[in-house]
TrEMBL record:
NCBIfam families: class_F_sortase. This is Class F sortase. Signal peptide: none annotated. Residues 31-41 have a biased composition (Pro residues). It comes from Actinacidiphila epipremni.
Amino acid sequence: MTCLLAGCGPAPVAAPAAVGPAGSTAAVRPPSAPLSAPPSAPAAGSPAPLARSVPERLRIPDIGVDTPVSQLGLAPDGTVEVPPIAAGSPAGWYRGSPTPGQLGPSVLLGHVTVGGYGDGVFRRLSLLRPGARVTVGLHDGASAVFTVYAVRTVAKDRFPTQEVYGDTARPELRLITCGGPHTAGGYLDNVVVFASLTAPSSGES
């Protein structure tokens, strides 16, 4: 979720998206206060939220993702930091969002490309389909298992801030990267994956 590092990202809140050099991940200026939005995933049968525990590993078998998870804060301009442009750059969790499995939307982002290093960890994120499983290993040894219910490609200047950051009635996950056409200024769109918690476990799976 940032145009800061890679020139690709959704629009900052109430401002147009910045465009920099060729981009590979997605970033947004997060809201200064929580946004309210109705939950967009079915509420029936949702497992209880997990205790707060920072994410350490992300696995998405359907697209071959198995990556460590770094922690990301805010850049000086108020946009979310992004993982470094480097070989093997991991996914990153925005620590201003809930940890995976807590109530609300936990936000992770990653690169689609990493400059001269080639493909990024989220290169195939747009290929995910509803029903895909996403497992986040947590520091306390538990795992938060999510099921994808929507995958959207959105223009950077129409980034769905409320849907990504807004309050939810259950633990949810957001995975964000770049997508769509690529120009000299970077990718024009963002890919956003929406998933809900379906199976907490006591150990990594």
